[in-house]
Write a structure and sequence with these properties.
This protein has 378 residues and is α+β, with helices and mostly antiparallel strands. The chain has four domains: 3-106, Ubiquitin Conjugating Enzyme, CATH 3.10.110; 112-197 and 209-229, Ubiquitin Conjugating Enzyme (Roll), CATH 3.10.110.10; 232-300, Herpes Virus-1 (2-Layer Sandwich), CATH 3.30.40; 322-377, no CATH class. 45% of the residues lie in helices and 16% in strands. It has nine helices and ten strands. It has helices spanning 3-18, 70-85, 93-106, 113-122, 176-194, 213-226, 268-275, 302-344, 348-377, and strands at residues 22-28, 31-37, 43-49, 60-64, 129-133, 138-145, 148-155, 166-172, 257-259, 265-267. The protein has a four-stranded antiparallel sheet with strand order 1-2-3-4, covered by helices on one side. Strand 2 (31-37) and strand 3 (43-49) form a beta hairpin. Helix 2 packs across helix 3 and helix 4 packs parallel to helix 6 (213-226). The longest helix is centred in the last third of the chain and has 43 residues, at 302-344. The structure holds zinc ion (2 copies). Keywords: Metal-binding, Zinc, Zinc-finger. Residues 232-289 form the RING-type domain. Pfam families: RWD (PF05773). Residues 6-107 form the RWD domain. InterPro entries: RWD_dom, UBQ-conjugating_enzyme/RWD, Znf_RING, Znf_RING/FYVE/PHD.
């Protein structure tokens, strides 16, 4: 038997036992086709041909895959050719297939190689960095904007894109509220990529899991770059200090930065005074985007806000009206006393007039106050 016939026999009898997830599809002198599969998305078919003076020359190899990127397969082809050159003069097929199999295991990020290439090309700028860690099937993403920085570890699971990506915070000098938002929202994006929406429209096509890396990294870069220079819609000054060391984590500090439902950020004090000032009709709207302001700390309905504001204003008015009231009370007293000093020094009729005047002014004051209260309540 020739060397090729022997080798083909060997492939038929041992390939599927020795190489995990392999299936021999064709095994004839003109072509050997073997499928290697790890998951639905990590699979390829090796198409192998013998050159004229085999085994003195390396095998002719081509890879096909519906899920792995063409660029990755071309690169793999080149390294496989080099690998075969190590075994010139010997049977090469099983050695080559073992090499391909371990390549898939050692490069779990092969499943998203195309996605990573476009992320590097289109999303990552000079100040940012994306490092691949094949050993842990993860990516370290560092995003920098001014003096602010965040580093996250994104783990790509074995069954990606059908399994949910994990996002862990490794480093950040943003306030806590922001880092929680970055990580929480990233996880939400990855969840939405693998789980169908709860309310589906009847005409929607059947749900298919979508790759989540690109949308997560695009979201992180966009948000991390936006916040450091974003201005408070109320006072028009930047919300986050230019030096991250000056960030306050105290939620009652006037400069504490709050993020409201629409995504815009405010100084705590600015937001508080804005929410407490009319108009309240239709709820308070964000001056930047016009969306209604919702926040866990201020669950105010427009009516409650209106009532609170009216109450506060009434108290202010009371304080402001305090001085005129005193003047009103003092006026008759001073008038009578002046009369006494200038004319009679002190007499009984003056004292009676004084008491009468004081009581009259008091009842007049009470009546006017009641009348004003009635108007307000109407
Ligand atoms: Zn402000
Ligand atoms: Zn807004």
């Amino acid at each position: 038997m020739s060397l090729i016939t022997n080798e083909l026999q060997d492939v038929k009898s041992h390939c599927e036992d020795q190489i995990e997830g392999s299936k021999v599809i064709t095994c004839v002198p003109s072509m050997v086709r073997v499928e290697i599969k790890r998951t639905k998305f990590k699979q390829l078919t090796a198409c192998i041909q013998f050159p004229d003076n085999y085994p003195e020359q390396p095998l002719i190899i081509e890879f096909k895959s519906k899920t792995l990127a063409a660029r990755l397969l071309d690169g793999l082809c080149k390294v496989c050719e080099k690998e075969c050159k190590k075994y010139l003069g010997k049977p090469q097929i099983l050695r080559l297939l073992k090499f391909v199999s371990s390549f898939i295991d050692e490069n779990p990020l092969c499943v998203c190689s195309e996605e990573i290439a476009s992320i590097k090309k289109e999303l990552i700028s000079e100040n940012d960095d994306l490092k691949l860690k094949q050993k842990t099937s993860s990516l370290y993403l560092q995003i920098t904007q001014e003096a602010y920085r965040i580093v996250v570890k994104i783990t790509v699971p074995h069954h990606y894109p059908e399994e949910q990506i994990r996002v862990e915070l490794k480093e950040s000098n943003f306030p806590d509220l922001f880092t929680k938002f970055f990580c929480g929202q990233s996880l939400e994006i990855s969840r939405q990529c693998i789980q169908p929406p709860l309310k589906r429209k009847p005409k929607d096509p059947p749900f298919e899991p979508k790759p989540a890396l690109w949308p997560i990294i695009r979201f992180l870069i966009k948000e991390v770059k936006r916040f450091p220079h974003e201005k408070c819609p109320v006072c028009k000054e930047r919300c986050l200090p230019s030096d991250p060391k000056e960030v306050t984590e105290d939620p009652n500090n006037p400069k504490f930065v709050e993020r409201v439902y629409c995504g815009h950020i405010y100084h705590y004090d600015c937001l508080l005074s804005y929410l407490k000032t009319p108009p309240f009709q239709g709820g308070k709207k964000c001056p930047n985007c016009g969306n209604r302001i919702y926040h866990d700390r201020w669950k105010l309905t427009p009516n409650m806000a209106e009532a609170r504001w009216a109450h506060q204003e009434a108290r202010h008015r009371e304080l402001e009206e305090y001085d005129p009231q005193i003047a009103m009370w003092m006026f008759p007293v001073l008038l009578v006393k002046w009369h006494c000093i200038s004319t009679c020094s002190s007499c009984f009729s003056c004292d009676v007039t004084l008491v009468l005047l004081v009581s009259l002014t008091y009842s007049l004051f009470v009546t006017v106050n009641k009348y004003l209260d009635n108007i307000k309540n109407c």
